[in-house]
Amino acid sequence: MPDGEGLFGFGPVRRAVSPYAERADPIDNAVDRLLDRWTGWTLARLPLHRWRLAREARRIAALEPRYAGCRMSELTALAHSLARQTLRPGGAAARAPLMAVLAELIHRTLGKRPYRVQLMGALGLLEGRLVEMATGEGKTLTAMPAAAAAALRGEPVHVVTVNDYLAARDAEEIAPFARALGLSVAVVETEMDPAARSGAYAADLTYVSNANVTFDYLRDRVALGRARGPARSRLRRLVGGVAGAGLTLRGLGFAIVDEADSVFIDEARTPLILSSTAGGGDADTLYDTGLRLARGLGEGAEYEVDRMNRQITLTDAGKARLARQAEGLTGQWRIRLAREELAVQALVALHLFERERDYIIDEGEIRIVDEFTGRVMPDRTWQGGLHQMIEAKESVAVTGRKVTLASITYQRFFRRYLRLSGMTGTGFELSGELRESYGLVTTRIPRHRPLARRHVRTVFYPTARDRWRSVAARVSFVHDRGRPVLIGTRSVEASETLSQVLTEAGLPHRVLNARQDREEAEIVAAAGQEGAITVATNIAGRGTDIRLGPGVREKGGLHVILTEFHESARIDRQLYGRAGRQGDPGTTEAMVSREDELFARFTPRLQRVARALRSPLLDGLMRRLAQARAEREHAITRREQVRMDKELEKSLAFTGQRE
Fold first, then answer.
1. CATH assignment, 30-229+245-271+409-444
2. Alpha carbon distance 12, 572 (integer Å)
3. What is the pTM of this model?
């Protein structure tokens, strides 16, 4: 339920004990969570909020001509005055004029006038809702008036997106509009030093990735240590100090989270952990020995692999053999639990984590690849010795084990914003969980123009080799007609395999994956040109706006080929959404293999039947069941993660230490 006090949680917002503004953790129970889930599901399907937003958007559109004759200075002064009025009792009446003034300023500074559906989305964001807008409907522009209105009221505003590239792109786009209002705009990038980061957060509008803002928050909590209480803060001020001195953030005021389903759902299965590196010692020998012993164990008899949950368990026979193998070894190998944990981590590294899928080797280091965004996650490591085991497996320098300094889940972090909102193209089916975990009500915004994109076909091939050969033939067919083609793959390895097949077929193309992410802007800019062929991992599946080149619209627009279904159908739809944006024509198709990992991991028995019978009806059933099972397993993982996080919080509360 809402995080206030009083009956059913409705009442004043509970502030956390902190040097800067943030909300206290919610107080709830199983009944609250069940009611929240049901409420979120129900409200998302009722049209009342959408009708109300549509009425207000019409009022704003009717007010816009009133400000067309004003000078820029008059508009700016009016925006500041109206924003202050919204803070007063009864100030809701000033919201429509404020949004009309901001819409006029956007038109003058950027040459774009927000559509009525974008005004609806902006109003929803300002109210603290999760707005679902179809891909290509202009969510970047939608966020601008909402972010500016909050900043004009003096709130710290964070526009959160999934990576540095999108944060920098969106900040650059809003900059002329913000300058006209006298607001400062800054971007937080991964490689920034602490002083630059603090300066960026001091801006009126800060564009930042979800990982960056969460880790910066954790660094602040570590810097604060135990000195967080109000008494200590008052004492510090009395002796001439500043309560928030030395902190990176200036508060968790208002957040607009772009690609919210990716941040709130897909990336919320694991906590974010801030760690330091412990001494290496005899790390090389320890992990090399673990890999050697693990390679001597047999699957089935001595260990069992659960590929769906990516877990490995030693059998009693495996534990006994490991004990015999470890005879004569020293250190951790003499301790039963320690050696079994090392052996399991070695088996996981050998059998469940693959190079070019889960990670790449860059400049002699293991770099984790985010399975949802397709991007390298710098400075991120696996915990519990797994990262070091993979380093030993790949014969790169083994780093020291990580010691946890602080950790937090996305669910817990984002609930700490005083006001939270989000926008996505695929969030409607998640409305119950979004309400339960983040307190957000989902509102679906209608399209500005009818969808002109067509899905051509879905084809299942017996083997991966058949699939790649057919994809190359299909690409050649579309390319010969002058249309651009975007081919989506799930891994770096798959993108490079397809690249080799296209090269052999004499088809010129560009590849965008974790290895080429520095060239992203250039590759995306060219992807909509006549005859362009682009092979991309999930990097191109979210947030990228592929603009059609001259003459492409008349030839049918962009053609998107999906080569492997994802664990969530939402991510498939995000890739399809690169075509047919803002009413442009476009086509999509899926060309997949029955050998794909999704089916092997989540429906292995049905996969064997489907490979034998080759029935289109059975293929479709296998896809739906595999994705449904994957979504269900991930939802269980997220709920379990939140439960464990709360239990850990209660345990640490005994010592006065949290996070």
1. 3.40.50.300
2. 41
3. 0.86
